[in-house]
Write a structure and sequence with these properties.
Layout: H1 2-12, H2 19-47, E1 56-60, H3 66-71, E2 77-82, H4 85-97, E3 103-107, E4 123-126, H5 135-138, H6 144-156
Parallel strand pairs: 1-2, 1-4, 2-3
Length: about 160
């Protein structure tokens, strides 16, 4: 349905390549979306065994909560954070619809995790979102990359 709406939008805008070229573009987009979805599920499936039972997990840039909902089957509690309020609202609606109690969603910036207590989380995840962060900013104020830097230092010892 969305593809038809986009095709109409392109045609109304006078897309210069014509309908056949436009249909080829959309077929490539459809294939990409299908492959992306399969790979995304594989990443999530591989993440689950890495989660310790009864742990408190933070999922950074959680989007609509797909990974949060997967991890909650093993973790004691999973907190998902994202800057996008629409995505968080979608996640909350899914949570309420499925009556899931061991997840929490918050609209917040991962570059400032100061609202959380020290050692509040046993593990943290981020998938398909690391490219969205400005590295310099994300290292400041206890932000997510500051935490990753600390973990990397700890691992080297």
């Amino acid at each position: 349905m969305l593809d038809k709406a986009l095709i109409l939008m392109f045609l109304r805008a006078g897309f210069p390549a014509g309908l056949s070229q436009l249909l080829k573009i959309f077929e490539h987009l459809r294939k990409f979306r299908r492959e992306f979805s399969i790979n995304f599920r594989k990443i999530h499936d591989r993440s689950l065994p890495l989660i310790s039972p009864d742990s408190n997990v933070l999922d950074v840039a959680c989007g609509t909560g797909a990974l949060v909902f997967k991890l909650r089957t093993k973790a004691k509690k999973v907190t998902g954070i994202d800057l996008n309020e629409e995505m968080i609202n979608t996640a909350i609606k899914t949570q309420e619809k499925q009556n899931i109690t061991n997840v929490d969603f918050q609209v917040m910036d991962a570059t400032d995790l100061s609202i959380f207590k020290d050692n509040e989380f046993d593990q943290a995840t981020i998938s398909m979102a690391i490219h969205q962060f400005d590295l310099q900013t994300a290292r400041l104020n206890g932000g997510i990359f500051g935490e990753i830097d600390l973990l990397a230092l700890f691992q080297r010892r």
